[in-house]
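STRUCTURE:
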């Protein structure tokens, strides 16, 4: 007879995002057929204005039935394996945490690419526009017309919170612009400003778009196609701010005495199992993750502690292999 020792509610790549952010360059997706640009994809997804609503639906479902489907064991922990947000912004992080821990939040879709305008000239709108009166290149492929989509997606939502222990680890999108570039002054000035670019900036034709984005992300959003409401809440989240925000909302593993100061690496001990969380973001940027020598030494130490405790378990989660830039090793 088997016994369930741990029940985890696992999610990943929720990517809560601010569709109107000037620091996003959705136009890159219009170049998807060019192999040189494909390493930067995706920069836009038709469903993106609803990501926080989808997370809320998950949270509400888990709150209604906080137990594993086969063992019926009450969940010990909900674990989000990174890319909790999309563009490393404070307003995105605030929304993610409000949904997970409980609270009120709003992310406006006004000004995003679903909110079609005249800025790109005549012809069909190149992004999905839910307005039935606006011709676009997506509705002919089967994407629906949805009445009042932008206004409804922009409405305030109220989350009851999970109601049981939860935590997350930072993925590449949690700490890097578009999950690829470290924050730098140029892109930060664009992010909090009121000018959003909807087309490729004039003269931008790099041989290696990915390398240029890592070094100069502002080059991809320089210029203006439309005006949006500026907001300081679009400033980038630092790792220390990410940790502090999780601590303030009660996320497991980020208590007042961190095991590794200024690091998101931590452990969570349950009755039978030690969960070891590693932040695998590359210190120089890029979406490919890495694990440093100091992290490996620390990992060996915390696993050795478990080895000295008969009957306890610690293993590495294979989920981390599938999601670059994150995340959780168990």
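SEQUENCE:
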């Amino acid at each position: 007879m088997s016994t369930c020792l741990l029940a985890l509610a696992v999610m990943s790549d929720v990517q809560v995002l601010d569709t109107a952010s000037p620091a996003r360059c959705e136009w890159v997706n219009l170049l998807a057929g060019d192999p040189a640009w494909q390493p930067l994809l995706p920069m836009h997804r038709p469903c993106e204005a609803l990501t926080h609503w989808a997370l809320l639906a998950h949270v509400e479902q888990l709150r209604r039935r906080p137990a594993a489907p086969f063992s019926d064991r009450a969940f010990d922990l909900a674990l989000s394996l990174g890319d909790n947000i999309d563009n490393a912004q404070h307003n995105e992080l605030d929304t993610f945490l409000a949904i997970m821990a409980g609270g009120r939040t709003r992310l406006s879709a006004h000004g995003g690419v679903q909110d079609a305008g005249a800025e790109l000239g005549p012809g069909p709108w190149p992004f999905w526009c839910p307005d039935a009166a606006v011709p676009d290149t997506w509705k002919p492929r089967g994407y629906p017309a949805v009445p009042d989509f932008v206004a409804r997606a922009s409405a305030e939502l109220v989350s009851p919170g999970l109601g049981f222990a939860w935590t997350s680890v930072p993925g590449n999108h949690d700490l890097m612009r578009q999950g690829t570039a470290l924050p730098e002054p140029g892109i930060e000035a664009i992010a909090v400003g009121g000018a959003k670019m909807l087309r490729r900036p004039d003269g931008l034709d790099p041989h290696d778009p990915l390398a240029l984005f890592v070094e100069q992300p502002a080059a991809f959003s320089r210029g203006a196609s439309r005006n949006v409401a500026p907001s300081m809440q679009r400033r980038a989240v630092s790792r220390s701010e990410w940790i502090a925000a999780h601590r303030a909302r009660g996320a497991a593993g980020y208590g007042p005495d961190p095991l590794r100061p200024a690091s998101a690496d931590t452990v969570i001990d349950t009755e039978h199992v030690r969960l070891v969380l590693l932040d695998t973001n590359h210190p120089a940027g890029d979406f490919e993750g890495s694990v440093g020598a100091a992290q490996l030494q620390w990992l060996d130490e915390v696993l050795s502690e478990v080895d000295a405790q008969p009957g306890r378990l610690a293993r590495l989660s294979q989920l981390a292999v599938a999601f670059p830039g994150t995340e959780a090793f168990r």
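REMARK: The radius of gyration is 21 Å.
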